[in-house]
Amino acid sequence: MKSSNEILEYDKLKEIIGKHIQTRYGQKTLTELKPVFDIEKAKSDFEKLNEFFNLFYKYGSVVLDDIYISDTIKEAFGDILTPKELFQIGNFLSLIKETSNFFEEHESDLCKKYIAFDIPFELFEEINKAIDEHALIKDSATSYLYELRTQIKQSKEEIVRNLKNIMHSRVREIISDTAIFMKRSRYTILVKPNFKEYLNGRIIDMAKSGGFFVEPDAIYNANNKLEEIILKEEAEKRRILKKLTDLVRKNSTRLMYNEKRLGKLDLEVAKFEYAKDLEQPEIAFSDKPIFFAKGAKHPILTHIKKDVKSVDIDLKSDNKLIITGPNTGGKTVFLKTAGLIVLSIFSNIPPIALKIEIGNFDAVFAVIGDEQNIMESLSGFSAKMIAFKNVYENLSKNSLVLLDEIGGGTSPDEGEAVAFSIIENLNGKCTYIAATHYKRLAHILSSKGYPVAAFEFDESNLKPTYKLNYYKIGKSYAIKILQTLGLNERITQKAVEFHKNNETNFSKLEKELENKLSQLEIEKRKTENLKTRYEQLLEEIKKEKESYLDKLIKDTEEKKALYEELINRLKSEISTLLKEKNVSKAHKSLNAINKQAKNLFDSEKQPGEKENFSVGEAVKFRGMSGKITDIKGDKAIVEINGKAFKTDVSMLSKEKKKSGKPLTLIKAPSKFSNLEINLIGKRRDDAQLELMKFIDGAITGSVKTVRIVHGIGSGILKSMVEETLKNHPYIKSFHPAHPNEGGDGATIAEFK
Q1: Do 394 and 322 touch, CB atoms closer than 8 A?
Q2: Is the Cβ–Cβ distance between 126 and 247 less than 8 Å?
Q3: Is 297:280 a contact under the CB 8 Å cutoff?
Q4: Cα distance between residue 105 and residue 588, in whole Å
Q5: Are 679 and 710 in contact (CB under 8 A)?
Q6: How do strand 705-709 and strand 624-632 relate by DSSP bridges?
Q7: Are residues 310 and 200 in the same domain?
């Protein structure tokens, strides 16, 4: 049977990331990648990943060459490495040195913490010293090699010079080609078959044309000397290669360590390339086995399709969830999305979501799909039960279990019983999500306090919306989906008739419940609209009050400034009086100041008998009602509409108590048996607020009918009244008044 990782297609997710891998080391690291259920490690790994991502967003990701030296390292333990193999190791060391320099330059701490290449600089320098850019041993590898190659060059030049002299002597008549040839490591010239009459020498090889490659006796010793030097050169080259091979062998552990570090870095770069255009969620880690994901998307589908719908996964408030909904509605994808996100987080793979909270899980188990096995004579039901048995025996309190259509593949009543038993027995043992088509089972579980959620189905278009609604139980819509598949109409019709004739009492009750819920939803929307309108009106009134209060405060401040100006003038006049002793002039000035002061404060409290006040007492200040919150000496702090004012106690007056005389209710004429409100002359918003208050009062007083006078005019008030009554949940009906009662200028409303 498939493992849970196979069922959740974990390897397919790795394949998508693998498209961004640059080296064989990275591919090996990705192949070995698997979830490690350690919450502290997961937290630490994501902190590291975020640091890499921040660096790559700022400076761009790293380009890595695929320089593979694993086989070369093994070869070093069995034979001497060739210059080409050493050249590859040199290139590998150069790559990790350049990569390390990149991180050192931009983020040295990140390099020390996570890159930490261990570069064997001695090996790197020795290879660069001995091997050139063409993968050949340099002349300067050693001084002895340089000396030998100098001798070889000189010997070759001498041999070539002597051969050219011979070819330009009397033997030119037997020369078949003016070129000099290297045959069997000996310099030769190509001559005609009758060469012995003109030239003494040895035949080294025969030409296809019939001539001979001859080594003249004059250069025999020179060729021997050249061969000896070349043999010494080969011995020196072998010594150099052996020395470098020994150095590779000595640093093999460090080289293999760097291979692994490069593979891990390659994987981090691949993760960045995979996720750079996706939402990067905030991830919060917890010690408890909780899981919450907002706006989560299936990572594989997201890379195949552009319009993948997001879902919210809530296993935070409760550690279980029952999913219902139609076929192809999204239940299985939801389960796989939840499983893959958890596996991703514990594998340090960026998940696709807006926000995630995850706890300390120790495993993810999935029983999804048809595990029917013909070879083992297992039906789909039996195979799924065996799969669940394996899960049940291995799960713990910190496990996440995903169940799809558990109890399916057998008779509905028995399958439903099996599903109920499994779900009940999982309760408290682990965190789990179960998807089911059994509506009755969902209702029973919901009544027992199990959280439920349902995928929507658009009945008008007969298509799933893939939208998940929590606290709802969905339908299967099997027959409606059948109609969309183009099946023979007679078959579909028969299915409809059979379902209708064999409908259970439970199904009928469920329909009635759905109709009532639909009506309640409509009433709820009306109430919410009305509430919104009330809030808007209250907000407008609040703003008007605040505006009025601000204006009042501003006026008070202006009067205070004028008051201070008058005091200053008064002081000035008194000072002048004392100096000039002109009583007549002083009287005139003081009378003028007194008149201005009287005009300024004629609307304010006149000084009288001193009143006593206490904290919490209702008072009047500048014509506004307020409450004393603090008194210190002659100063008091008064709170008015949530704002505090500091003033002299002398500026306060006690709030007059309202008369206890009972209000007289005006009763409408007995002909109508109703109450009445007149809105004529009022602004639309003011009139609407007054009307709403009037309706609330009528409801409280159990009034059945009211008369609303709005006049005809431009029709603004009339349309406002009709709109308000239409959206009010307690209005049964309304109609224009009888001509004797006001006609079109009034509206009669009846309450439920």
Answers
A1: no
A2: yes
A3: no
A4: 87
A5: yes
A6: unpaired
A7: no
Residues 474, 456 contacting (CB under 8 angstroms)? yes
Q: Which residues, in sequence order, are bridge partners of residue 655?
A: none
Q: Which residue has the higher pLDDT, 433 or 277?
A: 433
Rounded to whole angstroms, the Cα distance separating 281 from 295 reads 9
Yes or no: say if 346 and 36 are a contact pair by the CB < 8 Å rule.
yes
DSSP codes, 513-536: HHHHHHHHHHHHHHHHHHHHHHHH
User: What are 209's two structure tokens?
Assistant: 């044309």
- 174 closest CA partner among 210, 205, 204: 210
Residue 441 lies in domain: 282-480
Give the SS3 label for residue 416. Answer: helix
Amino acid letter, residue 9: E
CB neighbourhood size of 566 (10 A): 16
How buried is 156 (Cβ within 10 angstroms: 0-12 exposed, 13-18 middle, 19+ buried)? middle
Query: How buried is residue 372: exposed, middle or buried, by Cβ count under 10 Å (0-12/13-18/19+)?
Result: middle
pTM tops 0.70, yes or no: no
Could you tell me which of 170, 169, 174 has the C-alpha nearest to residue 194?
A: 174
Judge whether 726 and 694 are in contact, CB under 8 Å. Answer: no
Residue 467 — φ and ψ, nearest 5°? -95, 130
Q: Give yes or no: residues 233 and 326 share one domain.
A: no
Which pair of tokens denotes residue 699? 């409801």
Place of tokens 């935070």: 316
513 assigned to some structural domain: no
Contact 107, 50 (CB under 8 A): no
Residue matched to tokens 């259920």: 37
Residues 156 and 230 in one domain: yes
Structure confidence by residue, pLDDT tens digits, 647-702: 888 778 887 665 444 333 333 333 334 478 988 888 888 888 888 888 877 877 77
Q: What is the CATH number of the domain that holds 646?
A: 2.30.30
Do 438 and 411 form a contact (C-beta atoms < 8 A)?
no
Query: What band does 154 get if pLDDT is binned at 50, 70 and 90?
Result: very high
Measured in whole angstroms, the distance separating CA 350 from the mean position of its chain's CA atoms is 9
Task: Return the bridge partners of 314, or none.
Answer: 292
Instruction: Outline where 635-715 has alpha helix (H).
Output: 684-700
DSSP secondary structure code for residue 179 in this structure: E
Burial (0-12, 13-18, 19+ Cβ within 10 Å), 325: buried
Most distant CA atoms of the chain, gap in Å: 163
Residue 354 has which token pair?
């807006």
d(CA 709, CA 721): 10
Distances (CA, A) of 380 to 25, 290, 377, 416, 433: 41, 31, 10, 15, 20
Evaluate whether residue 525 is within a structural domain. Answer: no
Question: Distance (Å, rounded) from C-alpha 654 to C-alpha 637?
Answer: 14
The DSSP symbol for 581 reads -
SS3 content of the chain, % helix, strand, coil (to 5): 55, 20, 30
Report the pLDDT value the prediction gives residue 529, as an integer from 0 to 100.
Answer: 77
Burial (0-12, 13-18, 19+ Cβ within 10 Å), 668 = middle
Say whether both 470 and 331 belong to one domain: yes
* Amino acid identity, position 319: N
Confidence at residue 179, expressed as pLDDT on a 0 to 100 scale: 92
| Amino acid (one-letter) located at 619 | V
Residue 295 maps to which CATH number?
3.40.50.300
Count of domains forming the chain: 5
